[in-house]
Each structure stands twice: as C-alpha cells, then as structure tokens.
Amino acid sequence: MDANKKLIAKIGGVFVAILLFLTFFSSTIYNFNLPSVVVGYTREGVLTNYAEGRGVVEFARMELYYADATGRIELGATAGDSVKAGGELYSITSDVQGLRDSLDERLRGEERLKLRIERAKEDRQGAEANLANLRNDADSFEFDPSEFDYDMKRTEAQISAAERELGDLAALFELGAVAQREIDEKEAALDGLATLLQQQNERKQRAQENFDKSVEAGRREYESRRKDLARVVSDYDFQIGDHEFELATNRAEIDKLMAQIEAGGRASALAGSGGIVREVRAGIETGAHVNKNELIMRIGAKEGGFKATVDLPESVDFISAGDSVTFNIRSRDLYGQSGEVESLMFVGGRLRATIRFESGSVTGGETIDLRVQSVSRLHEMVIPSRALRTDDQGDYVLYVERRESAFGHEYFARRERVSVIAQDNHNAAVWMYGSDEKPAIIISSDKALSEGDRVRIVG
User: Fold this and answer.
1) Maximum Cα–Cα distance for the chain, whole Å?
2) Which is nearest to 219 in space by CA: 115, 141, 313?
3) In the chain, % of residues over pLDDT 90
4) In this structure, what DSSP letter does residue 229 have?
5) What local confidence, expressed as pLDDT, does residue 2 receive?
6) What are the tens digits of pLDDT across the range 46-82?
C-alpha cells in the first residue's frame, strides 16, 4: 500500500510539473507572437522645417557684344578668359572703300537730320505763338436782361393800376353805382396781366439759360483748341528730341568710320567692364567673316555679382523675396556663403528661387547647395510624425496601457484623439484630448495594430 501511494504521489507531481511547464511555455510562445512596439513620450520642443536644393552659379549681368562692322574678325579673347575693363576683345578689319561709301552716306544723313530739326523748330514756334494768342472770348460777354426787365416793370405797373381800379369798383358796387359785370371784366383783365408777367419772366429765364449754354460751349471750344495746340507743341518737342538723338547716333557712327578708315579699316571692340568670357558664338574664330550687328560673344560682368536658380518643393512657405540665406559651393571649398533671395515663382509644381550674391572666388558654372529652414516657437507636446494615425474620425495616436495578470504585466494598445498644431519634416506638435498624464505613445510596430490589441514593448 505504501508503495502504491508513493507511486501515485510521484505520478501526480510529474503531472503538475508538466502542466506548469506547458502553461509557462505556451504563454512565452504567445508573448513572442505579439506585435512588438517601440514607445516614447511627448516632449517640449520646436519644429524645424527645412528644404534643400541645388543651382548653378551664373553672372547676374551679362554683356553682349555685336559686330560694329562687316569684315574679317581677329579674336583677342576666348571662352573662359578673364578680361579687364577697356581691354580689347576682338577687332574687325573691313574694306576701306566700303567704309568711305558708308561715311559719305552718314554725312548726307547728318545734313538731312539737321534740316529736319530746323523745320521742326520753326513749326514749334508757330504752334507756340498760336497757343499764346488763343483767347477765350466767351468769358468777355455778359447777359443783358434790360429789355426783359423793362417789359416786366411795365406789366407790373399795369397790374398795380388794375388792382386799384378793382378796389374802386368794389366800393362803387357796394353803393350800387356799378354792375357786377364791370367787376368781373376787371378781374379777368387782372388775371391776363398776371399771366403776361409770368410769360415775360419765363422768356427772361430761357434767354438766361441759352446765354449760359452759349458761354459754356464757347469755354469748351476754347479748352479743346488749347489742348490741341498744346499737343501740337508737345509733338514737335518729341520730333526734335527724336531727330537730335538720331543726329547724335549718326555722329557717333561717323566718328567710328573715320577712325576705322584712318586705321586702315581695322576697328577694335573693348570690354565695357571686367569679367569672364562666358561664350564666343559658334563659328566665330580668327579669320572668319562676320556681318554687322552679328552677335560675337557674351561676357559675365564681375561687378554685377552672381546669381543661382534653385528649385525647392512647392510646399515651402517660409522664405520670401529679400530674405538672407546661406549656401555652400563645395567645388571651391566655400561654406556658409551669404546671399539674398531676389525672386520667387512657381514653375512646374516647384518653387523657383533666384539667389543673388557677391564673391571673388567663383567664375560661373559652379554648383551651390542651398538649405533653407524655419524654427517654430516652443511647443508643449511634440511627437514623431510616424506616431500619428488618421481615420475617418480624424487624427489619433495609440498608447500602451499596462494591466496586472496572473503571469505578470500585460500591455494593451489604447486610442487617444489628438489635434495637430503644426508639423515639420520629422515631428508634429499636438494637443491631446485625454488626461494631462503623458502616456507611453506607440511610435512604431512590426505588425498592424488596432485599439485593444495586446502588445509587447521592445527597444
């Protein structure tokens, strides 16, 4: 019996041990199958929005040089060369006889222009005299109402006499000396005189109105004539100025032709300012034939500074024209260079910024790396943007809630609504609708999560 009891006890102990082992082992396996989450807490902080872009350095001001004459060209500078103000860029040798023919034509043109200027000045003097002699005769006349006033005064006197006679007739009528018929006739005559006086007054008013209209029409005619004459004088001034400009331009061409003829047909083109030859037009080389007004070369003027055009994301709204920015030009080992936003425009879904700057170390063609940023005010609750979730009810986050169980602590995902105040490239400032306590917010998970899911905290 004792042996049997011991055997039964051993078997029971083994059974309980197996149950405990299986329970613990299955719970552990289950825990490892739970979603693994990384949590964090809200913090005070600022949001930093930034954007980066690249652009190519160009001269802000380009000077274009065209051939002043037709002939054979000899280059004194090529693309990439540095030139000084007043330095020779190229020379053109033209046919001397052709230059003399052009000079003769220019001299004849000068005489024609001088004649036009003299005629225009004479015509302007005549127009100025007409304007000075113009008078407004309408204001010299005055309305004379004497004729109307005389007739009205005579009628008023007749009315006064008729009123006295009517009074006398009324007294005689009371005495029975006159008949009612005489009183009626006198009253009718008095009414006729009153109507006549009213008509006379209306005629006077109409005459005054007609006179005023005539004066106003005369004033308008005078003002219109005055404006026409002033416009004629202004037109002659414009013609004279235009002809004088043509004369000065023609004289400059004459001087060039004379100097070129004296030099045996050779004329030099000099740099207007110091800079870098950015381009010599294709096909232009020493000995080539060029035509007058043909583009020869483009020079970047150093005194005009430099610019670069950089494309940024369309969402960038924290820079404006006139803002100061910094950038790097790595190929020249230039870091933290300062510039100014000259202009902004939207092109093809991108924000195109033109940056102006000064530098003595670049020659054009270098690449700039631009970074612009904006730092917000201090926010009370900042979380990583990847912790934000959105559904048809709005923005929310999932946080971890801890519960006690027979096997220790268990963690569950809970939902909390939030309002997004602002965001930058990586973080978001939020306001939570729940309690003031800061929960452990789920930042990332290796599996899809829903509210109420049990999770495992890692990291």
Assistant:
1) 179
2) 141
3) 55
4) H
5) 58
6) 988 889 999 999 999 999 999 988 999 999 999 989 9
pLDDT tens-digit series, residues 252-280 = 999 999 999 999 999 999 999 999 999 99
Question: Where does 65-92+265-299 sit in CATH, by number?
Answer: 2.40.50.100
Beta bridge partners of 413: 400
- The pLDDT of residue 179 is above 60: yes
Q: What is the mean pLDDT of residues 135-148?
A: 81
Cα angle 153, 154, 160 (rounded to 5 degrees) comes to: 90
CB 458 within 8 A of CB 36: yes
Residue 275 to residues 82, 87, 256, 280, 338: CA-CA distances in angstroms?
6, 11, 25, 14, 21
Question: 103-259 sits in which CATH class?
Answer: mainly alpha
Quote the tokens at residue 227: 């404006």
CA dist 209 and 143 (Å) reads 10
How many Å apart are CA 410 and CA 426, to the nearest integer? Answer: 31
CA distances for 60 relative to 79, 301, 342, angstroms = 18, 8, 11
Q: List the one residue out of 361, 355, 299, 297 whose CA is nearest residue 335.
A: 361
Domain ranges for the chain: 32-47+379-457, 50-61+301-375, 65-92+265-299, 103-259
Locate tokens 């029975």: which residue?
176
For 8-53, write each residue's pLDDT tens digit: 766 666 666 665 554 544 455 556 678 899 998 989 999 888 899 9
Give tens-digit pLDDT for 386-407.
999 999 889 999 999 888 876 6
Q: Which CATH number fits domain 32-47+379-457: 2.40.420.20, 1.50.40.10, 3.30.300.30, 3.40.50.1950?
A: 2.40.420.20
What would the DSSP string read from start to end of 141-193? Answer: -----HHHHHHHHHHHHHHHHHHHHHHHHHHHHHHTSS-HHHHHHHHHHHHHH
pLDDT at position 281: 93
29 Cβ neighbours under 8 A, 6+ residues apart: none
Q: How far is CA 361 from CA 65, 211, 272, 369, in A?
A: 25, 82, 21, 16
Return the number of other C-beta atoms located less than 10 Å from residue 53's C-beta: 22
Q: Give strand pairing partners of 403.
A: 410
What is the rounded radius of gyration, in angstroms, for the C-alpha atoms of the chain?
52
pLDDT value, residue 192: 92
* CATH code reported for the domain at 50-61+301-375: 2.40.30.170
Residue 348 belongs to what H/E stretch? none
Using alpha carbons only, give the angle 27, 33, 34 rounded to the nearest 5 degrees: 95
